[in-house]
Amino acid sequence: MSPEFAASWLGDSWPQWLQATVLYGVIAVVLFISIILMMAFLTLIERRVIGSIQARIGPNRVGFNGIGQPFADVLKLLVKEIIIPANASKLLFIVAPLLALVPALCTWAVVPFAPGFTIADVNAGLLYILALTSAGVYGVILAGWSANSKYAFLGAMRAAAQMVAYEIAMGFALVGVVMAAGSLNLGEIIEAQRGGPLSYFFWWLIPLFVVYFISGIAETNRAPFDVVEGESEIVAGFHVEYSGMAFAVFFVAEYVNMILISALTSIFFFGGWLSPFEGYPLPSWLAWLGAPSFIWLFVKVWFFLFCFLWFRATFPRYRYDQIMRLGWKVFIPVTLVWIFVEGLLWYFKIGPWAGA
Amino acid sequence: MTLTEILFYTFSAVLIVAAVGVITARNPVHAALFLVLAFCNSAVLWLLMEAEFLAIVLVLVYVGAVMVLFLFVVMMLDINIAQMREGFTRYAPLGIIVALLVIAEIASVVWVKRLGLEEAAPAVFAAGPDYSNTRALGELLYSKYLYPFELAAMLLLLAIVAAITLTMRRRRGAKQQDVAAQVAVRPQDRVRLVKMQPEK
What we know:
Number of helices of chain A: 15
Radius of gyration of chain A: 22 Å
Strand content of chain B: under 5%
Oligomer: heterodimer
Number of strands of chain B: 0
Distance between the termini of chain A: 29 Å
Largest sheet of chain A: none
Distance between the termini of chain B: 101 Å
Shape of chain A: globular
Order of helices and strands of chain A: HHHHHHHHHHHHHHH
Number of strands of chain A: 0
């Protein structure tokens, strides 16, 4: 995104800073609305997909095939009362949901959606993502603490331990991606995977991909890592005291994070907006299939979102000590070993480093 | 005032308010949160100086990891404020000495800056849009300062190992899972299928 692009849309009569502000403002609002819409339909698709996996129907009453269900849910949550518990830390209780949502939305600023389309083309984009996702844990911790409830507090403690543990594995997995791409810029990471599906980082970084995606599921506190909510032991964990829209904000944050993890996984390991048909001979009327575009990112994101739902319907919940063991004793050593292997591959010029 | 100056003064003001909040807040959780705010604001100040790597790492390490663990501990403390106030007068002289030392150090840094160091290093502040702070830091750390860097890494590793060995205690008779044994279990070891004749 460049100032020249802004000028071509708004004309030269406006001062440059105003052009940039208006342009980025409009893009940010459009992006925000599309992500929220995607999140809303994800909740519906989740219920329908899990329903079909469990051989039931799922919500299909509101509108055609239940398409109006998300809006009905929002309406219901909007008209519900927000209850603030007695002896709660009021300010933190209200700020906590926002602290969960804001980092989740801010991260989208550096995500490349299509060739050359990023809101902020930051050099250290990957670090920015790591920093913001690690800040997301505050919403959960503060929600648990400020509610002045034992269940919520236990949920918050579990969340803090779990998210800190899996962040490390995630960070190490991304070190491998950076080593392969030679850049922290997300656009350049995608460019480094050009040349058809066989040159995606996935092939050479399979262990890191597995670690990253599973850590991503743990980071978003989704099943089978949802001890943070743990309905059977601690009711609903950190958000047990939240009602109405305050609860909905946590809900939105969780689903936006799911979409984000899916997008990042497809960018880091599956070439983001690159076409899987790139480099194959295609008839001229199918040439658009070979071109990199937003569609491919969209398809890949939905594939990983489907995996999220699939895992939720398939696996039983992990026990807490098993989660800790997996994070600290399995994932971190795996990533460390693979980073070393990558170093050797680079040294002997094997695989993606053959031409380097 | 330029936009940069407005941003600088705004974030510095919030930083100072947050820093004062850290030591005046009665509730330790609030104090820890003020510290988080202070870290975020100093990260922004570093961003204004084009040190984006340091700024993001500050948020990543201190806000994302250290303070989360800090909060984790502080939230579980049951702190009696009256008890905490008890030693105030006794430790006040020591506290004042430490504070004066810190002020002297900061002042000396400011004074050193007057010696013309900014003229000596103009290149840092005149970076173009393609300049990558991260790359520059990486090149320096892994070439010119390789040995100090590796030494620091070894020291940190040593500290981690030492901390773990100091705190890890194996209780006698504590039950532990052997995951390998659990995974290796076969149905034949656990379940005995008995064929019974139906009773008449």
